[in-house]
UniProtKB/TrEMBL annotation:
Membrane spanning stretches: 289-310, 331-356, 368-388, 400-419, 521-542
InterPro entries reported in the protein's UniProt record: AAA+_ATPase (IPR003593), ABC2_TM (IPR013525), P-loop_NTPase (IPR027417)
Cellular component terms per the entry's GO annotation: membrane
A UniProt-annotated Pfam family: ABC2_membrane
Domain AAA+ ATPase: 1-142
Membrane topology category: Multi-pass membrane protein
Keyword terms of this UniProt record: Membrane, Transmembrane, Transmembrane helix, Transport
Protein name per its UniProtKB record: (Perigord truffle) hypothetical protein
SMART domains the record matches: AAA
Organism: Tuber melanosporum (strain Mel28)
Record localization: Membrane
Length: 561
């Protein structure tokens, strides 16, 4: 207990091992022993102050504040904490009846279930104050001014302060208000932190701690060394978390519908814009742009995945990581796996309108290859969204990072700006490390392979052969080693030249070849696995590693050296 700014929440977070910023010194001992790896799952922490005005459901039909707090307590109790139960401001935002109900419930847990409960509280009423067994009293700055029993009607703690020079308490005074008012007068003639440090009560506490440490530090040492950080193996964690995430996705029908609608709408848009593309040179370019257009709908899918990832990440980090219910590997794996069925279904919805409306090849090999490549792309998108989300603090940061990454990816695939027109610096490396380069190469090469090119009237190039020679005699040797075809080889004037004979010749101007389309698919598959790898690595680096502590240890090590 203590006034605002005394460090109650900071102390509670530190004791419960939830504090992830700053540097903490000293020792943590539980029952005289060092904390084991299973400490997190043997304890529960409820940060209830932030829920003072939050409701489950809609206003008027949702749970009351007290009921919401009970739900939160119940969730933690379901994990069966064995060691300690931490609560941060359990009575904040409640009226006297609700606060009394919560405290009585906690008292019942302590008395009947034998659960050790440690909670912060600001200024309880006299009735609530009496329900607690012991109090650790903090003053501004986090200094300890009392630790010990409260006594009936607060008599023990009141006697301590009166004995050390505090004004005598009124018979009907609220013990909590009296104590807080007394320490608020400091600094003054009495420094209550120093008085406590020199008091016999403090000496007795120190002796009791030393006695506990000496008598119990060696007990069950072998058992302590065998304790596990998580109660279940990783395989079980992954299975159960995946089930839960899948159930959440299934219940959130709007998420699935929005994904399917995005796929269908973009598929129809691409199909309408490039419907029944022909075989002229201009329409060869339209076919290429029709394939290139699909990469631009990735932003729509991405902006739907990232809020979901952030929602589950917040839940995991605020409750389940610290309680050691499951590991970050299980959380990330579940998120990755659950997106795959949606990706496959999205590919089915997108592919058929787009492929057949544009009039792309309908043979089984081309169709099957293109569908498989599109399915891989649908899998690639959410996993790319996840590694971006893993390194971003919130949606605001993601909204800044997303456009930058996808403008670079979409702009350097060799379609919007042809490969030979890219700046040499980017042509040497960025074009080749771009994952969508391999997607586009595979899809376009498949869609244009062996497609005969028929120049339109304004696409023919007309030239005149020398007198006495036919078009074939004059340009036949050249045309046999160059792109294109001559329509009238026997003519002796007005030779008509089309610069491409088949789509494969057009492909080579884009730095693409049909012969490498399976290699392109394999490389794009590798990018899917690299996405998955990045999700794990970036989450660990940005969300798991406590860099301040790492740097503090390095500084201390350098000083010692």
């Amino acid at each position: 207990m203590g006034p605002s700014g005394a460090g109650k929440t900071t102390l509670l977070d530190t004791l419960s091992q939830r504090k992830r910023v700053g540097v903490v010194g000293g020792e943590f001992l539980l029952d005289g022993r060092q904390l084991g790896m299973d400490f997190g799952r043997c304890t529960g922490l409820l940060e209830l102050e932030g829920l003072a005005d939050a409701l489950i459901g809609q206003v008027g039909v949702g749970l009351t504040v007290e009921e919401r707090k009970r739900v939160t307590i119940g969730v933690e109790l379901a994990a069966r904490p064995e060691a300690l139960f931490f609560l941060d401001e359990p009575t904040s935002g409640l009226d006297s009846t609700g606060a009394s109900s919560i405290v009585r419930f906690l008292k019942k847990l302590a008395d009947e279930a034998g659960l050790a409960i440690l909670c912060t509280i600001h200024q309880p009423s006299a009735i609530l104050f009496e329900d607690f067994d012991n109090v650790l009293l903090l003053t501004t700055g986090g200094e300890e001014v009392y630790f010990g029993p409260i006594g009936d009607n607060g008599t023990t703690i009141i006697e301590y302060f009166e004995r050390n020079g505090a004004p005598k308490a009124a018979p009907d005074a609220n013990p909590a208000e009296y104590i807080l008012e007394t320490i608020r007068r400091a600094p003054g003639p009495r420094n209550w932190a120093e008085i406590w440090e020199d008091s016999p009560e403090a000496l007795a506490v120190v002796k009791e701690i030393e006695s506990i440490n000496s008598s119990r530090s060696m007990l069950n040492l072998e058992q302590q060394n065998r304790t596990l950080e998580y109660a279940m193996p990783l395989s079980t964690q992954i299975l159960e978390v995946t089930k839960r995430v899948w159930l959440h996705y299934w219940r959130d029908a709007s998420y699935g519908y929005s994904k399917m609608f995005s796929n269908l709408s973009m598929s129809l848009l691409c199909g309408v814009l490039f419907v029944n593309s022909g075989n002229t040179v201009q329409e060869m370019q339209s076919r290429a742009f029709g394939v290139y257009a699909i990469v631009h709908f990735s932003q729509m899918i991405l902006t739907g995945v990232q809020p979901k990832f952030l929602e589950f990440r917040t839940l995991y980090e605020t409750r389940e990581r610290n309680s050691r219910i499951y590991s970050s590997s299980a959380f990330i794996t579940a998120m990755i796996v659950v997106e795959i069925p949606y990706a496959i279904l999205g590919a089915l919805v997108f592919f058929f309108p787009w492929w057949y409306m544009e009039g792309l090849p309908r043979d089984s090999h081309s169709t099957g290859y293109a569908f498989f490549m599109l399915m891989l792309y649908e899998i690639w998108i959410p996993h790319a969204a996840m590694w971006i989300a893993a390194m971003c603090k919130d949606l605001t940061v993601m909204s800044v990072v997303n456009p930058f990454i996808f403008v670079v990816i979409n702009g350097f695939v060799g379609i919007f700006v042809p490969y030979d027109q890219l700046p040499e610096f980017y042509r040497r490396w960025l074009f080749w490390v771009n994952p969508q380069t391999w997607l586009i190469r595979g899809l376009i090469s498949t869609s244009l392979h062996n497609i005969p090119v028929s120049c339109s009237d304004n696409e023919w190039v007309t030239f005149q052969p020398p007198s006495g020679q036919t078009c074939g005699e004059y340009a036949g040797e050249w045309i046999s080693s160059a792109y294109g075809t001559i329509a009238n080889l026997e003519a002796r004037e007005d030779c008509r030249y089309c610069r491409y004979k088949v789509g494969d010749e057009f492909l080579e101007t884009l730095e693409m070849k049909y012969s490498t389309h399976w290699r392109d698919l394999g490389i794009f598959c590798a990018y899917i696995f690299s996405n998955i790898f990045l999700v794990y690595v970036l989450y660990y680096l940005f969300r798991e590693v406590r860099w301040r502590r790492v740097f503090a240890r390095l500084r201390n090590k350098n000083k010692q050296d």
